[in-house]
Amino acid sequence: MLEFRWDVQDDLVVAATGYLTDAVAAAAREARRARVCLSGGSTPRALFAYLGAHPEMIPSARLSLWWGDERPVPAVSDDSNYGTTLRLWLSQWPSFAGDVHPWPTDRSPEAAARSYARDLQLAFPGEDPPVFDLVFLGIGPEGHTASLFPDSDALWATTWTAAPYVASKQTARLTLTLSVLNRAREVVFMAAGDEKRPILETLRNLAAPTPAIPASMVRPARPPVILTDPAGAGAG
Fold first, then answer.
1. Domain 5-233 coded CATH 3.40.50.450
2. pLDDT at 169 over 60
3. Is 78 exposed, middle or buried (0-12, 13-18, 19+ CB in 10 A)?
């Protein structure tokens, strides 16, 4: 069976905040900012709203924020992962002193992917691929994660970023690739509720990674965390 670390919690927001504060503390011991990759989805929205209301939780100067994937839309769009984070969290703090790296969606998806890869090269000098301290990911009902969808060519990309066309969404997406995700020090999948139970059960029973379920191909050195609630775990 694939190895995951299952973390079943009644309150995913509090648990996710714990992973974030742990990453910040570990980076501080190395006298640097924690390099954190954020995701979209309903559970991260709740996390961002909580952090926005509690600026005392984390020293913002200790954070370097990135996004695992993005839609090619302006930040003002409700579909923008960065825009959601900005509205719910970053704009709520009196002064956010960390550095923030949204995808540049003011250009073609292909150009945006190339630009983000250059930003990563500048921010992670000497690291090939870059090593994030913490990556939050979601899991779609069919097993996609970030914007890596089942059987996508982007699953085999050797570049750090990609701009795959997702036929089911009839649009291109921007995404980090497995070459980056699999180098992270800590990966936390956030997936809660009855609707996520079937895909989580599938992941629990998989014998090996498969491109039919991209989340199963996220295999960093430390087994990823599945952060879920009792409903998602089949216990409620």
1. no
2. yes
3. exposed
